[in-house]
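Summary for the funding panel

The consortium committed to producing paired sequence-structure records for every protein in the target list. Below we show the first two records in order, beginning with the earlier of the two.
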Amino acid sequence: MKVETIDYYFWMNSDWAYLGADRLEALAERQNIRVLYKPVDLPNIYYRTGGQLLSDRSPERRAYRVLELKRWCRKLKISINAQPAFMCPNADLASCIVIAADRQGLPVGPLYKSILHAQWCQDRDISSERTLLDILNERGLDGGRLISLARQSDIADVYRYYTDEAVSAGVFGSPSYVFQGELFWGQDRLEMLEEAVEAAMGRSE
């Protein structure tokens, strides 16, 4: 029997991906659906789709982001620092570590959430190999081996492929979820995503 899947495209610097992470996994468990974790190079996607990095946005847009984060944190009872000490550093190595772990059959959900938590809740620099090694070791993983695997060219190829695939699927921001070709952008669309899954599986009333 075929197991349905959700293509989950996310940036390893995405505060919104962090806010939606637990709810996505709960959705997948409720609906018996598999999540395919696909870290992407969001600055590259922005360049190709007309998006703007946070540093390039107007003061009004930056201020509203903080306001929305505070609202969602209150709603979800999750605490994050909207302006951490190391905000949105280079996420390429972190992304490749997640891909390498996935290809090794390791649980990806707890790992990528730990990296996001390090940035948004602990003021740690996730562009630092030392920081990433510490995070991996804290999770009981072989950090040195995973970082070595993450630096291999085939993992970089997968990272680029996921980024290209995301653009082809219409993705322009993080987090984005694609189910049966339909795109849902943002953790605030998880309820609609679940409704689509239920309808496709004949579970809606």
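The next record, for a separate protein in the list, is shown here:
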Amino acid sequence: MKSAAILVTSALAATASFAQDRSDWPGSFTVATASQGGTYFAYGSGWANLVADELGLSGGAEITGGPGQNMALVHTGEAAFGMTTMGPAAEAVAGESPIAPGLQMTNACAMFPMYQTPFSVTALTSSGISSIADIPAGARIGFGPAGSTSDTYFPRMMETLGVDFERRNGSWTDLGGQLQDGLIDVIAFAAGVPVPAVSQLEVQTDVNIIEFTEEEQATILEAFPVSEFAITADTYTTLEADARSVSMWNFAIANCDLPASMVNAVVDVIMSDNERMVNIHRAAASTVPENWDKNAGVLPWHPGAAQWFIDNAGAEIPEDQIHAQ
């Protein structure tokens, strides 16, 4: 196994609890992300490359079906790291994931908070659709990759709001192209903002970024595990004011069997320099130590990650919420 000649200073000083012995570290790693054109892929590729560079490891991102599949890949060890949304994560831990019904994915551990995933709706301006109520019966709505957070929750939300639709799946990039070509009518995004596919659409055509009404937002808040969110006006050139939305938190995850010293060093690389992360993706403005509590007991903490937040963020993580290695 090759060792890095130099460890980034912050990783060296992470904690006294984890020495610099890297003899049990894997020589390479994979970060399970999602489809190209979405925030997960852009964000995940960025932090995978950052960690690989700083820790002298071979690593990179893998295109996947999103949070549900990522839980399975990390649980089984097929991917060392991944990213998930707390709704699909809770279902996976309980053995209720549509990816593998009955399998309790308890070997995927919380590593660090990422950002909130807003749920937003986009249509071409030429369609005349400027509100949820404008979506015609039988509209073809793209919900992202099958099994993704968007595909899991957004159809249910639309049904709850009384929308009649035909369901379409695909990568965000593909769906953006289909919207522009008139093959679908609406895209229902659940992704960190700005969504690359939406930003690309804005350059190429006129779009409507559709917010929820106060009544629609209240209905969704009551029915789903989400929080209030506003997509700020400066997120997209199309927006002239903040857009009312709802959101769900995302966490990076690690296979629970990975060495504590390795996960501690990875977390230190990510959490010790937020400006570097924001340069990867603007959504990383929320990737800060004080958001450690957004896990809220959904996932067991990896001991290496838990130690970092205890030492550096004053986190009070109960011992029974830390995975025992």
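Regarding this second record: The CA atoms of residues 47 and 243 lie 28 Å apart. DSSP finds eleven helices and ten strands in the chain.
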